[in-house]
Amino acid sequence: LPPAVVHCFTGTRRDAIEYIDRGFYIGITGFILKNTEGAEEVKTLLRDGVIPIEKIMIETDAPYLGFANSRDAFLEGFTSLNSKKRKKLLKSTYPNVPSSLPMVLSAVTACLNEGRAERGEEVLDEDDVATYCTQNAAKFFGFKL
């Protein structure tokens, strides 16, 4: 099969194992920052090492799949918004924005490290995880770093 990425993975353990066995990359979004059963499943898969770091790509899926605080960094640059518009945008989870990617990275890193610590493996900092994800994306898309 040609290289493939499972965009915006929200599946089950069985799904993840099938995709990984086929060599697919797994796209992790801010979905893991939601308080849902499905999000907990994906976090567990990261903690348990079912989705190996060599197969993770992080993404926002902007403008979809917004999550709490997904626009905070984005809205900091819009000081001209009146307080009513700003408050309305901050309360909503839509639209998601690309500037929320660091929040996805933090959540992925936390999940990975929780599992790594339990297994006695070295924990990674966010820069390490970002490097893995960048290398994964470069390999997938054929980019040279």
Describe the structure.
With about 140 residues, the protein is mainly alpha-helical. About 45% of the residues lie in helices and about 5% in strands. The protein is built from six helices and three strands; from the N terminus they run E-H-E-H-E-H-H-H-H. The protein has a three-stranded parallel sheet. Helix 2 (about 35-45) links the parallel strand 2 (about 25-30) and strand 3. Helix 2 (about 35-45) crosses helix 5. It is globular. The mean pLDDT is about 85.
Topology overview:
Blueprint (H helix, E strand, L loop, with lengths): L4 E2 L6 H9 L3 E4 L8 H11 L8 E3 L13 H4 L7 H9 L9 H18 L7 H16 L4
Parallel strand pairs: 1-2, 2-3
Helix pairs in contact: 2-5
Descriptive terms for the model:
145 residues, mainly alpha, 3-stranded parallel beta sheet, 3 strands, globular
Order of helices and strands: EHEHEHHHH
Q: Could you give the order of strands across the largest sheet?
A: 1-2-3
Give the class from helix and strand content and strand pairing.
Answer: mainly alpha
Compute the gyration radius: what is it? 16 Å
Using DSSP, what is the number of strands? 3
User: How would a crystallographer describe the biggest sheet?
Assistant: 3 strands, parallel
| pLDDT < 50 runs, ≥5 residues | none
Backbone shape = globular
How far is the first residue's CA from the last residue's CA?
Answer: 24 Å
pLDDT averaged over residues:
87
Helix content: 40-55%
